[in-house]
Structures
1.
Amino acid sequence: MVKSNIKNLTFEELEGLMLDNGYPKYRARQIFQWIYKDVEKFKDMKNLPKDIIEYLNENYYIGRAHAIDKQQSKDGTIKYLLVLEDNNVVECVLMKYKHGYSICISSQVGCRMHCSFCASTEGGLVRNLSAGEMIEEIMAVERESGIKISNIVIMGIGEPFDNYNEVIKFLKIVNHKDGINIGMRHITISTSGLVPAIYDFADENLQCNLAVSLHSANDEIRSMLMPINRKYNIEELMKACDYYIENTNRRITFEYALIDGINDSQEDAKTLSKLLKEKLCHINLIPINPVKGKEYKRSELSNINEFIKIIRESGLPVTLRRELGTDIQGACGQLRKSYLSDN
Ligand code: SF4
């Protein structure tokens, strides 16, 4: 019989499992707490009776991921390459902020969105990560680093909304008070703009943050950078964003990677300001990380400053993302890419 990873179960599913098998419901809490105290074997769950341990051993295993490579930046950012049970690898990045440690996790092995500036996309999508594997990204990094993580961004390899159900399940597990217990307000999901999933996510009404990778307010440029724009153009994307804002009363962060000569002109800044005017939002500008084999260059500092000035003058809140880990192939997918080309 094929065993399943117990980390894929939400607390409620674990309760259902206990009841369905004739065990008391309160055993679910004990098991859940042990899992997130990071025990490796069911037999180490000391307050469980033998029959439950046997049942768990017969049907489940406690999934683990292992760091096989790590790169530490001068600024303290650490990028981990984790190997999964089937030998696929994913990346996650541990970053220190004023308010604690933040982890950027992957949601898929590879990605099929084919954004032209991204290193994750070249081999296409290999497979989705399960909720338990995303949980393990956090646990493996905490284990490896000895650091307690307080914030999560789902912005690593993959498009989270292309793996919608597992990502929602992950949020429920990671947020549970008897487990890792990271508050929804400390979690951000980033999407390249999968419009139907933005509507679904708005309807979930979770308290977690949404970031939308915009990168241009012009359909022609955006379609060139992000092929998803050919399926869901800027007008459709903005309608979905308005629906999200109206229904959740939460602000959206629009991510905008500044690329020299592509989307960083004064005209681009004006079009962006016009598009987002009066939206409950925040604009996060990111000087693009150069990717080996891609021709995109980071914008000149004078262009970045002018861009910011135009947006500020329009009244929209804008920040320039602090650059972390540029000396360790910090951009999404680069460590995995170099690992795959060496192996
Ligand atoms: S930027 Fe994100 S959505 Fe786009 S190809 Fe890379 S991983 Fe996928």
Note: DSSP finds twelve helices and 14 strands in the chain.
2.
Amino acid sequence: MDLTFITQFLNEDLGIDIVQFLNKDLGTDLTEEAILYILGGGVFFFLLSIFFLIALYRLLAKKGDGEEISEKGTDKQLAKLEKAHLKRQKQEEKEQKALQEKKNEARLSQIAEEERLIQEKLTKIEEERRQTKVLQSDLIPDQEETPAEPASFMERLKQGMAKTRSNLIEGIGGIVLGKKEIDEDTLDDLEELLYTADIGPETTNRIIEVLHHKLARNELNDPKTLRITVQEEIIKIMEKSYPSATVDHTKPLVLLFIGVNGVGKTTTIGKIAAQYQQAGKRVLMGAGDTFRAAAIEQLEEWSKRANSDFVSKKAGSDPSSVMYETVSKAIQENYDVVICDTAGRLHTKANLMEELKKMIRVIKKVIPDAPHEIFLVLDATTGQNAIFQVREFREIAEITGLIITKLDGTAKGGVVIGIVNEFDIPVRYIGVGESIQDLQPFNASEFTESLFT
Ligand SMILES: Nc1nc2c(ncn2[C@@H]2O[C@H](COP(=O)(O)OP(=O)(O)O)[C@@H](O)[C@H]2O)c(=O)[nH]1
Ligand SMILES: [Mg+2]
């Protein structure tokens, strides 16, 4: 191998004469060839060791990398495991939560169901209690019915109207107390009083307007004139008259009673039946309130008390078929008066309308001009609610007369004035108690008298 390039490189490029340096400067005795081999070997070993070092370095580096890589891989795996664990944990939590929610829901609906059952039981108890009360008061002959000295109807009416009267008269007295003359403030106070006396907004406005006119014309100077003007205006309202109703020559005379639950329909039917019977008429009752068995029993008891006959079907039957049977029987057996009871506790107005319309249609099938009277029964103690009921029922049936019950002891008797003023339907009867003689034909002037004296 030609190694002269080494000496050439040392000599020419670095300026070192290696032969001279070794032999002369260091005193060795080496041939140029030997020096060249030594140098060549040196370079060879140098290059070889560099090569080894590089290889070693790379080997170590690779090992390091590997360790790092495998460390990285483990971390990744750990993170993955951690993530999966978290996911599973979350899933479990979610399932646990859903399960708890389901449990809560089930518990809630169980509680709601329990509540509903309790409510149902309470309603049933209340209904039974009420019915027992109604039946007791209706079945057990009333001791008060035959008092030693029976008070006249007018006396009972006055007694019954005592609260309404004192509210109105004492109320007006209180407003004008200590006043020498009447002004707008006085009229405002009076307006409020009339509202609270259940006269109704329309009628109150009518009375107040008249007073305003009088005040403007200087015709309302003192408290006495104010009281007299109110009284006169109420008398004017109550003066409305209608042709007498009962078609005496009609046979059978068919009367249909309508109105909301509890106003006194069945009781009033019993009282009217008793009065017809006392007048020598044969009366047949139809139990059109088929809603509850107790309602049928109540009418049956009244029919016994009133010595009249009675047609019924089992609870839940179609009231129209009861109407049909009652009216047909009345014709066949020559009854003078037919009185039909109805239910007032239907859930919706549409239902009530359809059922009543059907009943009227069925009655007309047997007697085309019947029912000869459709009486709407109103409870005076409900105050202005009675006015709303007239409006509602007027849409359902052609009401021919109103009956206002429970005028005994109520402070809301003023509602009769509102009803007379607002509707062109005659008030035919008023009730002032639970016994037979406590129902009388309505007499407007007697009623007005009961309001002021
Ligand atoms: N104080 C009083 N109670 C009455 C009068 N008319 C009816 N009642 C009572 O009102 C309650 C309901 O009467 P009821 O005839 O069953 O009403 P219906 O649901 O409309 O048939 C009963 O307890 C009756 O005794 C009345 O003029 N004065
Ligand atoms: Mg009834």
Note: The beta strands are 253-258, 283-288, 309-311, 337-342, 373-379, 401-405, 427-431, 439-441.
3.
Amino acid sequence: MIDLADALVELLAPLSPGEELAGATFLRASTELGLRLTFEDAGELVHVEVFADAPDTKHAARSGRLLFAYRAGATGTKRGEALCAAVAARARRNEDRVLERLARHAGDGRVREVEVTRALEPAGRAEQPYFTLSPYVGCLIGCRFCYAQGRVGLARRMRGLTTAPWGSYVDARINAAAVLARELEEVPPHPIKLCPVVSDPYHAIEAKLELTRACLEVLRDAPPRPVLVLTRARLVERDVDLLASIEGAQVGFSLPTVDDAVRAWFEPRAASVADRLEVLAALRARGVRTFAVVQPVLPGDVDALADALAAVADSVSLDVLRGEEDATELFDAHAEARDPGWQRDRLEALTRALDARGVPRWDGELPPGVG
Ligand code: SF4
């Protein structure tokens, strides 16, 4: 199986990371937040995003079979467009070979064992950098509002795979722990997050493959750094002792409501509210710092949620609904939750309730005191 990030680099051949294209320095390819080629242009990061050609995809340039768009900070539109055009010109020469090789090695199973050449993906702002670590791509919990499904679908299309329902497929990165061990000797001591960027670290297949556990064992044996684990699965309970042995580990659950009927409506294959609270309490009892993520706020008693969180979470991250993905029908039955005003009001009420209980809150990517 070919590493998709390596294939993205190959699109630009003979250009290699560290070399210049259209006056910008090519830094890396990555697949966690979409298929990205990242450049540095006059001190700014510019991400050129790569898409398999499909109708209605916004783009700044096209090669024969691929589309390119850009995300940039202060870099102007003209620079982004020029960079996309330069990338498209390179890709035009290489895409047939790269896409055919990807398709030839794509495999067709719903659960595929894949090998990667890198495990850590740089993330975060320059003033608060961290790495994401994903032993799996694709998630068997399959929440319909999941923000990861679009990104992971892009990667499947790039490999020429047929579309499959979200929650029905996963790539298991079987050498992730070995690659991580090598990378930890080279990278700066930024925090590492195992979080649902492209999968849940404790979805069902982890019980059999133990790839997340193997990565945690590597982190336990490496020099200490903050390690964050975010999940919706009870299976994390299996690793309580291991997590307790990792200096700097924090474990969180997503917990958007205290009402388990609402939870079951939106997240039918994830752990119940009671399970999540119980596991957080067990982690805390073993001395592991805990956190919870409430995003979006779903219907349910806000004070009861604040009480529950105050009892088991050392900090709470809050945010509103940012898109329904495939969960539109689910929101039809809880229409109030899709209203931005309702989300804002609930968030403010929960903020007040948490403040009254002295629970620290955060709204960035990392809990207080990390990074
Ligand atoms: S558990 Fe997380 S990663 Fe998995 S489907 Fe649900 S939201 Fe997505």
Note: The chain has two domains: 4-104, 111-362.
4.
Amino acid sequence: MADAICDICGKAVPVHESFIVRIDVFADPNLPPISGEGSANLDTSESMAELLEQMKSMSADDLQDGVHRRFEHRLCAKCQRAFMANPLGLPRQRKSGMN
Ligand SMILES: [Zn+2]
């Protein structure tokens, strides 16, 4: 019987005792509200310019983040429990200068 390797601790575990963690990361498909009802009578030139400014400031990195990414990992039972307790691995980052 083939063993699976835990992607976190590296331990070999029987396949039937392993867990698969699948993470999909993708942009919400909802479109931003361009013009809402009720605001038709308002002068929208200002908010329009604001929107264009936001789009201009979108970098290549932002666009790259919009690509669908899928991560798949195999975990042993112990690491699966740890993962379930904190799926996002928080705190992801510490703010510098907190002291
Ligand atoms: Zn493990």
Note: The CA atoms of residues 50 and 56 lie 10 Å apart.
